[in-house]
Input
Amino acid sequence: MSLKPGRPGHANLAIGLLAGAAVVFFALPLVGLLVRVAPAEVWRQLTAPAVQTALRLSLTVSLTAAGLSLLLGLPLAYALARLPFPGRGLARALVTLPMVLPPVVGGTALLAAFGRRGLLGGPLEHGLGVILPYTTGAAVLAATFVAAPFLVITVEGALRGLDPRLEQAAATLGASRLRIVATVVLPAIRPSLVAGLALCWARALGEFGATITFAGNLQGRTQTMPLAVYEALHTSPDGAVALSLILLAVSLALLAALRGHFFKGG
Amino acid sequence: MTRPRSAARRVVLLGALTLGGCSGAPAERVVHVAAAMSLKEAFTDLEAGFEAQHPGVDVVFNFAGSQTLAAQIVAGAPADVFASADRAQMERAAASSRMQPARVFARNKLVIVTPANDPSIQGPADLSRAGLRLILAGETVPVGAYAREALNRLGVREAALANVVSNEENVRGVVGKVATGEADAGIVYATDVTAELADKLRTVTLAGADDVVPAYEIAALADSRQPELAAAFVDLVAGPAGAAALGKRGFLPP
Amino acid sequence: MTAGLVADIAVRRGGFALELQFALAPGATVAVLGPNGAGKSTLVEALAGLVPLARGEVVLAGRTLERPAARVRLSPQERGLGVMFQGYCLFGHLSARDNVAYGPRARGVARARARAEAQAWLERLGVGEVGDLRPAALSGGQAQRVALARAMICRPALLLLDEPLAALDVSARAQARRLLAGWLAEAAAICVIVSHDVRDAIALADELLVVEAGRLTARGTADELRARPPTDYVAAVLGEG
Output
């Protein structure tokens, strides 16, 4: 396209119209959710035992997944950013994959690994008597699988942006590697760590595809909020909207808490 | 003067072309058939014959759990024919006032399926064995509702439901999870043990629950844009050709 | 020479090679002078143990810090040197006082004692009032003194200062140079000061080591080098100084 100076008004108009359409496109579904159901119905749903069960399970599963992501993801991010090891590029690609992989494929892959006829599933069942699929543990694994990359990538980016001489300075002052991580590295990347953890938790909370594939759908055990929304859609559509509103509120609260980290401008 | 304008114009033109592509296709008449998941093979068998009888007509199927299809019809989804695996979901769809009167066109039989290499389940009583991993369809899914009713008749409902590890959204989800060995047993229609899965599954009869007979209902939608074609498809399914196709796939006559 | 520093350094980094030998007497203060990219910062990193030697040795006060041939290589933590990094590298999330107290804390000194000691050092360097401030709130001169206090608090036998004055503006520089010279004279340590500024080098050090393209090309007092400059670079920088 030619971009000669001439009548910028036309280009601006086109951009403005398309941008406006984009905003409407994102806003309309949310408005739809809000006007579809009376607040009383939301409250009634929120206090229904089945919903409370799903909500509690969702919190348990997503928080456990976030904790697990932290436990495994933090050392991984550090290794990816700081320790040169063979296959580092491959490791990074592998960790990033779940972010772009369709979740249902992730669930199928988890079955192939931890299912009863999977790579590890057989030994787990016959050696330890542990059967993972269709358990709350499976829901946690599914959520961790799709959510941990958000933490790893965010933290790794922050670590790469951190001046390595800060760690060197701490080393010359006699601090052990562990002490350096605890007293220099983590405090320096704390904003990114918090943001990564929040993103990770939000993704875990919203996880659907891998969960229903690997963990199934059972109230109180693996039926998290998104699964409950999906099921309600076929039985009580208003209930589905009310449940969606609850998840929407959680997401909005998260964004509000993170504002400033992602929205510097405006 | 024309150059700078062309960028914006091209964007608009592109949009018009893209949108135009959707509605500007040659006028082929389409019959949308929303049908229970278990009917997939039998209905697909009928497609070619119907299209041959009605030149220029394309039958498009939407196979899913009947409760999903009923919800879609209630929500206003475009459809010309609805075939449900039970009366409850047909009635739910009919509550939207979009359905014409329905008729029963086939019946089915419930069976227990287990992985082919697992001989431990011999009858319904084994479904209440502690530690068994049982998969059912959800309670609003027709096959899930029939299964619960059958377990109730057999007096093992409570114990068997305690063994349920997942509620699937359609019958094929149940079959698949048993076939891959992730679950020890499931309750499905006899017709779901398709040729493709036959060597992975073992079938056990649900003796004692013979009076729970799944019945399929079909109806055209009152607001169909192709009322004659919709009626023709319903007639085909409920007529001799339909009976033959369904019988070939293991369904029972109405 | 066992009480001083013996440095026989060979470092390879990509296509760049640093190879030089020198020995320093106890209490000596030398300036390493050279153009950008000559290998001055690499020399500091090699002495501090932040990059490994390919060959050679570093011996400080009779203690071998590194000798690849004997597979000896003490970590930066074990060397106990004082290093002041270019740009200071203060910890942004800690107060000035806690920055200075970091070394003692890492070596096991209790928090309260480490802080008191740190405050004493800040006062000694004339910035006792900034103890509670974060590095971002410090002026260039204050940050420089905090960094110096952090490097000196554990009374290292070898003090490495990489461009200690480069971040200061011209008005503050003359005074800072004078003060720094005084503090270094008081310290019992061997001081190696890296600088690209010949006036800083002459003002701070007794002796100049000139590094060009990874090699030691000249060594001596400013007067000696000015009288008989061995390279064009030496002639040029000392001519203008």
Q: What stands out?
A: Chain A has a mean pLDDT of 88. Chain A touches chain B at residues 1-8, 10-11, 13-14, 18, 111, 115-117, 131, 133-135, 215-219, 221-223, 230-231, 233-235, 237 (CB under 8 Å).
